[in-house]
Amino acid sequence: MPELQVILQALAAMFAGGAAASGWTAAVVVANTAFDGLDHGRADRMLRKVLVSAAGFQAALLGIAAGCALFAGATIAGIIAAVAALGFLSNIWTLAPRRDRAPEGLKKKNSTMRVVAVALTLMVTVTALTAAIFAVLGA
Fold first, then answer.
1. Pairwise CA distance, residues 38 & 93, whole Å
2. Which helix (H) or strand (E) holds 77?
3. 82 CB contacts (<8 Å, ≥6 apart)?
4. Rounded to 5°, angle at Cα 96 from 95 and 102
5. CA dist 115 to 6, 10, 126, Å?
6. Nearest CA-CA partner of 23 in 67, 70, 57
7. What is the per-residue pLDDT for 87?
8. Which residue ranges of the chain lie beneath pLDDT 50?
9. How many CA atoms lie within 13 A of 126 on its CB side?
C-alpha cells in the first residue's frame, strides 16, 4: 500500500509544519505585537499566557506528526517530531508559577523565564520544521 505511506508522510509534514508555524506565530508575531502596543507588564503576561496555551496544541500536532511519520516509515522524522513535542511541552514547565521566594534584600526577576521560553520556542520551531522536511523526504 504505497498510497497510504505517501498520505501518512504528507500528514506528518503537514502537522509538523503547522506546529512550526504556530511556534513562529507565538514567539515572534505575538511577542512583537504585544511589546509594541502594550506596556511591559501587560505584554509580558500576555506573551506568557500565549506561550503556555499554545504549547499543548503544538505538542499535540507534533505527536500526531510523529505517529504518522513512524507509520509511514519515516523514522528520523518521527523521532525529531517526538523530541520537538517534548520541547514545546517544556515551555509549560519553564513558565510554571514558582513557589520559591527571593532571598531577603533581592528582587525576584521573572522576565528571565519569559526570555528562556521564547528562545526555547524558536529553537523547537526550527526542530519542528526539520521534522516536516524529513517527513517530506520520507527519511
1. 26
2. helix 75-94
3. 62, 63, 66
4. 90
5. 39, 34, 17
6. 57
7. 92
8. none
9. 5
Among all chains, which residue has been given the C-alpha cell 510554571? Answer: 96
Structural contact between residues 45 and 132, judged by C-beta atoms closer than 8 angstroms: no
For residues 61 and 31, give the distance between their C-alpha atoms in angstroms, rounded to a whole number: 22
Burial of 107 (0-12, 13-18, 19+ CB in 10 A): exposed
Cβ-contact 128, 19 below 8 angstroms: yes
Write down the pLDDT at residue 59.
Answer: 95
Report pLDDT for 1: 64
Residue 76 has a CB neighbour count (10 Å cut-off) of: 15
**What length is written for the chain?**
139
In angstroms, the CA 41 to CA 30 distance is 15
